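Hi everyone, sorry if this is the wrong subforum. Our group has a chain we'd like a structural model of before ordering constructs, and none of us has done structure prediction before. Sequence below.
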Amino acid sequence: MKELYRTGDPLIWLTGGALAFSLLMVVGLIALIMYNGLGFFWPKDIVRYTLADGRQVMGQLSEREEIPQFGEGKKEPLWRIKVKQGNRDLYGADFIWINEADIKTEEKPAAAIVLERREWGDFIGVIKAVKDGATAIAAEPAEGWKALTGALAGQRRLFEEARALERDEVGAISYDQEKLRLANRALKLKGAKDDDPRITANLAGIDKLHKDYEAVMERVGAIRAKLTWTVVLTGAGGVEKELPLYMIVRAVKPNELSVFGKAGVYLSKIWEFISADPRESNTEGGVFPAIFGTVLMVMVMSVAVTPMGVLGAFYLREYARQGVFVSAVRIAVNNLAGVPSIVFGVFGVGFFIYFVGGSIDSLFFPEALPTPTYGTGGILWASLTLALLTVPVVIVATEEGLAAIPRNLREASLGLGATKFETMWRVVLPAVMPSILTGLILAMARAAGEVAPLMITGVVKLAPSLPIDGYFPFLHMERKFMHLGFHIYDVGFQSPNVDAARPMVYTTTLLLLGIVLALNLSAIVIRNKLKKKFATSAV
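Answer:
Right subforum, don't worry. Here is the predicted structure as tokens:
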């Protein structure tokens, strides 16, 4: 036994087994997320269950589990199923549990449809009639489906046209009105009187914009007057509901779809999830604003943390006189990596938002006060807070890279007449660039998944507008933003409809993992290219 221990084989097997176990845990976690997330968008068949007491339930099978039984003696297992019945505005809940022993019959009606709505979730039922105003267009399920699919795209297009007018033209008018209002307030703060020609001109401009607003709203009203199509549906148990077509996002008859048809619906839902805005308290629709906010925040954080970390590492390794003080600084930097992230968030609120942001508002935006511009949470302050959070990672990785560069490389540069700065800039910095990118990769991976500091420095449940738009200065770093990590927390723990939101948690988690992987792979590719370009004995 001692001889075996001396050979080192047990240690090799132990370390290899630990690595294999860790990899299995990671693969298992990813497999669990993929299993629960990828099937969320697949259209399931609609089943009508007739129960022993005569009630009917129509919906999609969601889960099946064994009912716990207590008492002595061996008993036959009992099962129950969870059915997504939808129609939350009629039944009060999206899901219902049914004991399999209570099911008398079950069937898959071909005429059953699923309507994804902008509000109140899915509606599951059978078409009874399709109307254009008070005029009945179709009164049978088959004819109604044709009328519904034929008119749905047009009604949805009119609805989106009206929303675009409200979002774009009305938004532009409101933006210009606010600019003129703030301009007048700035003039008054400087001592201008009410009869000042500039104030009078601004007021005239506001009046003109108000007339433009009324004209746009008339156009919106004219468009909305054309949204007259409705569909009357019958749910389980004979309950009826009349829905306007413009409130329907997607209509599907899953029981009549082939595998390829279901795959088409599946892909369209994935595209909607990636490219659309959220709806229904973030439990439905897409997560594009959260994707945009996450990527932009990581990019801004990377731009901020890289120079801070690199300059700090260069000073500690190349310029500072080694001693007790520098050793204490290194210990402090290493300890910063273990500080809870919420502490950095509190620092970000106190220093960046209240001190820096409040000072900026007092100096450059006094006319907007007491409404803060930069003195409140925003993507800039959130990014800088995360830059402070991750700067120790970049410093440590860069210092390790600097320590690995041979000293004779620096001496050769200095011996050829280069200055200290030229040596650092043209010789040492290119050679240490792969190590810098390694630290940046680790920093991005941590920053993309942080949530706690963001909750108090700028992230919100739903951002009304993106940080980038068509208004000067185009990039609005003071705006609040959405983040995938916070979106997961909000949907998973703050949603009013937990059962409906749970699959969205897994799907968003999978998307966040994919984005982090894409960002890291991009940095790894750049790092590998730099390694080949600046290959030396140090790297």
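For your construct planning: The mean pLDDT is 89. The chain is about 60% helix and 15% strand.
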